[in-house]
Fold each of these.
Amino acid sequence: MIGAIEAGGTKFVCGVGDKDGNIFERVTIPTTTPDETLEQVHSFFQNKKISALGVGSFGPVDLDRSSSTYGYITSTPKRHWNHVNLIGELKKHFSIPIGFDTDVNAAALGESLWGAAKGLDSCIYITVGTGIGVGALVEGKLIHGLTHPEMGHILVRRHVEDAYQGNCSYHGDCLEGLAAGPAIEKRWGKKAYELSNEKKVWEMEAYYLAQAITQYILILSPKRIILGGGVMKQEQLFPLIHTHVQSNIGNYIQHEQIMERIEEYIVPPNLGDNAGLAGAIGLVSSYNIE
Ligand code: ADP
Ligand code: ZN
């Protein structure tokens, strides 16, 4: 049995599954203070007889195993969670191998092992929710680096009709500041799901997301692009994004996946609610074990 944790800013999902990504039991714990939340995490796993644990976490996180702050959540704007030693706290209770990566890297890995990018050695997973995060698997490996990529915070060209200033607390009008759920809601003054019928809203949203995706394609050349998160429940976004991406690429990358079958190239996730947990299990079977 392998334990899995999807550590999010709103909720921690914990589960138990097998090495093939099957989940047998899961629980959702609200993210409050680290003490309170991790106490509940510990008690869930207490009698589960897990032999390893995979953790995909919101971030930024320190993934450098030679660093003195490895396993920490670092500069998050999330209250109470700045500079929290997540993996250190887990290790106090479980002396088993722990795989650790960002939530979006875990999701990209899970989708490549069992979901929408199954069998491919390359994909990116983009979540458009409270924030925008992107995980990337390239040549069979999850990408890290100096820290880890932060592709949700790239700069984009403004839409000519957009007067909204952006709400990223670090950059103002970066992609996340203009296109994550809270930005949509502040710009238009309504909950995102109440805006379903407002064409202009989704046209502008697709304009921003397609710009970002175009840049990811140009830089990483991923073999599949998976778009999840609360905002992507607006399925009308997919065809709009497809059209904008094709237009941005401008026939420069002449691959049939982009020119003719883009609806099979830029797709929704395939693992549904278990994507995060399956990905966390993937971290144990594949990567980053310590
Ligand atoms: P999180 O990013 O916190 O893990 P979600 O991926 O569910 O959680 O994202 C939450 C955001 O998604 C909310 O800010 C909201 O704006 C947006 N959202 C949730 N449901 C919908 C929907 N049906 N249509 C459009 N936007 C939605
Ligand atoms: Zn930003």
Amino acid sequence: MLQSLLFVPTLRETPKEAEVTSHKLLLRGGYIRQNAAGIYSYLPLAYRIIQKIENIIREELNKIGCSELLMPALQPKDMWVESGRWDVYGKELMRLNDRHDREFCLGPTHEEVITTLVREYINSYKKLPLALYQIQTKYRDEFRPRFGLMRGREFIMKDLYTFHANTEDLDEWYLKVRKAYCNIFDRLGLNYRIVQADSGQIGGSASEEFVVLCDIGEDTIVYSDQSEFAANIEVYNLSEGEPSPDGKGTIKHAKGIEVGHIFKLGTKYSDAMKAEFFDKDQSKKSIIMGCYGIGVSRLLMAILEQHNDDQKVFWPETVAPFKVHIISLGKEGTEIDNQARALYQKMLTKNIEVLFDDRDERAGVKFSDADLMGIPYRIIFGKKVDEGIVELKKLADNTVTDVKIEDIDFTNFL
Ligand code: ATP
Ligand code: MG
């Protein structure tokens, strides 16, 4: 991709609305723009990252037998009355009327739609288990939208729902999804913890959250310094220094961002909405459910929060908007520029995701923009091109080395 064609409206000054580093960098770097409180456009750089996050999620979920679908955001009131949540959900539910004055909401989550959908189809234990997910825009009229993509009123979520004939099968799937989530967050380069959680609005019995550890997090987690014990403070109100409830170690506190939440729903929705099946012994039972969310747009910020040094961004290779950033410090028509273009063309033919800064800008501008883009490998074409040498900068370990153009190893960039 030619950088002159990429829409990246960077800012010199940090907008006052941004309080946290990742939000500042996303605005300054031309990744996102606010449309109204908690409602954002994802500009090309951000959208490339979001698509990579989504594809990692898809790969890990498809691997364990989940299939993807897409349900409507616009949901009729009837379903919500049937589940009992129309009144319970409160002001967070975005409600609206159509021209015939029929009431709708914009989905904050999709238990009602999916339960209505599968109850038509699942009538026998033979059709279970089933695992369906979507990646979609969700709406929640949050009391306090803030920190950019962290708490939006319109945001992207991956939501998965599983259906089972018995609790053993739910337990088995819950663990499978939990493992898939670990693979996802590992691949995204995150430092996170799995904590016991409160089931909140969605309901059900057991639930755990995946929490990315960082100071700007809105959640407080309590954890043992010597075991796997960790919980949201909403579940165990423990003070620092207390003995851990599992008898191992003492309690510490940490701040974190909730990026995923997994629930054993049980029969909360299937009872209310009569989603039933005939079991092996011909008895009629409610379908047992699980539901599992990942905050896709929130993840973009969480990853950035763990991958910046205040002024500069360094995206993990798995989600970076491009793999290689070629920067030419020569004007168009010079030997330096010709050589840079030649390498760019060669990389394109090898299907490397490469961005070429072909803009007629000063070196300082090119470098400061590149620092906000955080592309893992940067190749700089400068004075030494005469000797056939360029600079290769690897952001992950902050190293710069001189390399001969003909020695550049393309396999690093695939
Ligand atoms: P929170 O406690 O942060 O409000 P939640 O418990 O309401 O989250 P879930 O209903 O479990 O969230 O939604 C699944 C995931 O969607 C969350 O783990 C989170 O990553 C993401 N998410 C929830 N609300 C928002 C929001 N307002 N903006 C961006 N992402 C969100
Ligand atoms: Mg919430």
